[in-house]
Design brief:
Length: about 140
Amino acid sequence: MLIKKIPLIIIGIVAVIWYFYIDYKEQNRIDKELLENLNLQLTGVIDSVDVFNGYGGFGIIRLKIISSNMDDYDPRPDHAFYYCVIKKGTAEIYAPAFGYGKGDTIRINTKAKVISYKNIENSITINRHKSYYDYIKKYYK
């Protein structure tokens, strides 16, 4: 009886591995396009932080820009997912926001996919959940 189920188990395992492989490749493609190719170098002081319930710690980190290699950046018209919006000396970072505090300084290097805060470096990635961006559009215009 178990021997008859072995091919189905193997097919199931292969399907799960294939799904995670495809998901991993898609995340890498999006991160390359929207982070590495962006090549943003930004230092800013945190003005406010909103952490959203139900989004794995993701939220909005608002910054007053100290220095940046970009004055304006708004990918929303062209991309469903994005890491930040920059305008008029401020930036909104759409990323894990738990643990950051008002008045703290952060440094962002999208080419290296790194955010530095209190001498700690964390990797950054693009959130690919449409509901996260729908929530931002609905409550944070």
